[in-house]
Write a structure and sequence with these properties.
alpha+beta, 5-stranded mixed beta sheet, 10 strands, about 40% helix
Length: about 300
């Protein structure tokens, strides 16, 4: 059968020209390629690669309806970037250097903690003196008010005031919980970007890590992406890829792609299961079989009921 058509122009057209000099920096977590930088996310999206967001949003960390960076790429998406020389693996920190750096940081951290505690103690003593002076001032105003002076003589009022002030000096305690602490409300060092510095030391190009059985998936992915389709993972639908006619933010998926080789045998029950599932979610199942000449043979399956 003929390959599915698409309403968008394929990559490489005049509307979607890409800058070949732009290199995407990938942080490899074991074998998972992650994209952290915002400019890399924009570059990946402009190339029609969707990926999946994994991180929580800073202002809403307890919800999982909307996620943020990092962006996890499919192995096929990473391989496509690698073939176009458009991705570089950010270097991993050396463990020995990292351990020595941690030891140095521990020493610096201990010194900073000591300085912070000394500063807090000085601030506590200063605030204790100010709090005592404020309490004395309030007591003096209360004792020398016109209402109290009218009820007692001047000598008795002065003696009572001195006695109250002396008692306040001896028994006044400033609680530690009332200590006012200055909080930093502005970030520092925004002009220094460690990710940008790491990209200059990136390992480029990325080394080949795909296994042989991934070749069929990649050939299908490259062929469909070359026709202008957008693809995401279809694990929750029992397939390899969900195929969208346009940006997944604007369109629903039309196809569930299942990658099989031409000489691979398939259990009939598996075919019935994935076809029935595709019918329930209003999608067409595509059996995608890469050929030796680089092309891909597509076979569509639709559920029509049991005979």
């Amino acid at each position: 059968m003929e390959a599915p058509s698409c309403r968008e122009r394929p990559p490489g057209s005049e509307e979607e020209k890409e800058d070949p000099a732009v290199v995407v920096g990938l942080s490899l977590c074991d074998s998972a390629p992650l994209v952290w930088r915002m400019q890399d996310l924009r570059t990946v999206r402009s190339r029609g690669l969707v990926g999946a967001l994994l991180g929580s949003l800073p202002r809403a960390p307890r919800q999982n309806g909307r996620l943020g960076r990092p962006l996890l790429l499919l192995p096929e998406e990473e391989r496509l970037l690698r073939e176009h020389h458009a991705a570089a693996a950010l270097p991993q920190p050396d463990r020995s250097q990292a351990m020595s750096g941690l030891l140095k940081q521990d020493g610096v951290r201990a010194e900073l903690c000591q300085q912070y505690e000394e500063q807090q103690q000085r601030s506590f003593e200063e605030q204790s003196v100010l709090a005592l002076e404020d309490r004395k001032s309030a007591l003096h105003r209360a004792m020398t008010s016109s209402h109290i002076s009218a009820e007692s003589g001047a000598g008795t009022s002065d003696e009572a005031l001195q006695h109250r002030l002396q008692t306040l000096d001896q028994n006044f305690t400033f609680p530690r919980s009332a200590l006012a602490v200055q909080l930093s409300t502005a970030r520092t060092g925004l002009s220094y970007c460690s990710e940008a510095r790491a990209l200059l030391q990136a390992d480029w190009p990325i080394r080949q890590r795909c296994k042989p059985h991934c070749d069929a998936r990649y050939q299908v992915y490259r062929d469909l992406r070359g026709r202008g389709f957008y693809l995401t993972s279809a694990g929750k639908f029992g397939g390899d890829f969900l195929v969208y006619p346009g940006d997944p933010l604007r369109f629903h998926a039309h196809f569930i792609a299942v990658c099989v080789t031409l000489d691979e045998s398939i259990c009939l029950l598996d075919v019935l299961a994935v076809t029935r599932l595709g019918s329930n979610v209003k999608k067409t199942v595509l059996l995608c079989s890469p050929g030796a000449d680089g092309g891909v043979c597509y076979t569509s399956l639709q559920w029509s009921g049991m005979v």
